[in-house]
Amino acid sequence: MRSGAPRIELTVVDVREIAYAHLAAASLPGAEGRHLLAAESTDIVDLARRLLPAYGSYPLPRRGLPEPLALALAPAAGLGRGHLRRDIGYDLHVDTTKSGREPGVPNLPAQASMEEMFPQAVGAGGP
To answer: Which of 36, 41, 49, 35 is nearest to 12 (CA)?
Structure first.
């Protein structure tokens, strides 16, 4: 993906925040219903750009692929063209108001989460 990736919006949340929310849902009397957790909405290209200063030697996407090229390459990447047609170019908005009101649910920034996660994911142990 070094040469590029489709610009598909996704949400980012730290796994520790999800774990805490699950524990809170099981133990807090007022925690009921569905809760959405997301630090922010972004895309894979933006996430990769944030990691480039420390991890530029890894094959991280440098730019977004034009939609026709992304659609042409989709099957080789294991993606369905229908999925890409539906998702490229659409903003993703989630309402995390409900989960943010619960006492003690941490709000961990995406940048910090990624900087801690990436070296573990690639087995590097750090920059």
So the answer is: 41
